[in-house]
Amino acid sequence: MSRLPIRVRLALYFALAMAVVLAAGGWFAYARVSSDLGNALDQDLRARGQDLSALVASGGSVASTQGALIENGESFSEVVDSEGGVLDATPPIRSNLLTLAELATARNEPVFTDRSTVPGLDEPARMLALPAVRRGEKVVLLVGATRENRAETLSSLRASFLIGGPIALVLAALGGYLLAGAALRPIESMRRRAADISTSSLHERLPVSSADDEVSRLGETLNAMLARLEDGLERERRFVADASHELRTPLALLKTELALALKPGRSELELLAALDSAAEQTDRLSRIADDLLLLARAEQGELRLKTEQVDVMDVLEDVAGRFRSTREISVAPGDPLVLTADRLRLEQALTNLVDNALRHGGGAITVSAVRENGTAELHVLDEGPGFGSEFLPQAFERFTRADGGREGEGSGLGLAIVATIARAHRGSARAVNAPGGGADVWISLPLR
Question: Highest-confidence range of 95-99, 297-301, 395-399, 428-432, by mean pLDDT?
Fold first, then answer.
């Protein structure tokens, strides 16, 4: 069943549902008609019983009513005394049709009873026995009618259901198949368009109808997914291109220094200088590779943190102490804050912030920590020119630099790693230009 096309499956499900509905509707109609016919027959027997009771009470004979109150071959009547003897009857009835128990009950109240066959008629019949008076004597009047008309009507109804039901079911299945095709036509259109979309044409989108239904919402969801895939692929392509460019520069320098070192006639000092430069470029390659690995692990959700209780002010003092030999760095006093964080990653993020301030800022650098709405904000402020208005929105993206160039020692990954570490701690990273000049860059981490 699961291998059938969805259009066929929908048609089959619709046909099955219609079969259940038709069967239930047919059964209900049949039962209702059968009940109505039975009630009509009982009403007819009561009416005949009243008329014949009046006839018997006035001294008339039930045998003389054929063609009027009694229809030949379809209804009958008889008058029975208290002992069960037949006093009067319509032909071909000649014997008592009531049992002793029914006769005893009928002396006092009307009794309905059924017979599978009646002698002389050989057909199933419905009978009503009721008390009557004949010439001052209490008797039992019996009126009955065959159920052949009722059976023929029900048989005709069954035949109609058995013939019309399958036809209706086939038409319903065909209608379901056509309706399913119409409902799935937009999906088929989206499928054909999706089959033509490749990595080189992710800018294309699936056709979406203007109707606000499940199919249009599916198309909108798929188009949103395509947009995310296009954005992700573009970011990956840009990442690969930027990484290749960043790696090419130190590799080219390293190759040049090694080639010069191997050149005959170099002095010892020149060889040492070449080796120092090669070692420097190797360190730069190693840092870039480590940064790229960290970013890749973070995107794959594999950046594991070794969390512990961390004294924020202690971390700020350690990070500031590493740079005090090169620039004036101060730690602003603040409230004691304790975070559950990975201390090494936290120090790495703050080190990147301070290093960025040293490279691109100016004047004194201040690191501080403040409590803000259930979070701890770790700020690094400098007195330099601040960020450019165009660079500020993309400051934490990979391989972005304030000057837009590729030269220099930086790789454009420092702030991206800061944002990655902050997100790994369920926090965030932000940067603004301070009102008094300089840049204010910070990470915000939840205290709990």
Answer: 428-432
pLDDT, residue 246, reads: 64
What pLDDT is stored for residue 284 in this prediction? Answer: 73
Distance of CA 200 to the CA centre of its chain: 31
Q: Give the domain CATH number at 122.
A: 3.30.450.20
The two three-digit tokens of residue 181, written as one number: 């095709």
Alpha helices by DSSP H, 342-431 = 343-360, 414-424
d(CA 89, CA 98): 13
Residue 303 clears pLDDT 80, i.e. is over it: no
User: Which 3 state secondary structure label does DSSP give 385?
Assistant: coil
How far, in Å, are 69, 105, 134, 244 from residue 82 at the CA level? 24, 11, 12, 119
pLDDT in tens, 6-25: 888 888 888 889 899 999 99
**Which CATH number do you get for residue 433?**
3.30.565.10
Buried b (16+ CB within 10 A) or exposed e, 216-243: eeebeebbeebeeebeeeeeeeebeebb
Number of domains in the chain: 3
**Is residue 346 domain-shared with residue 292, that is, in the same domain?**
no
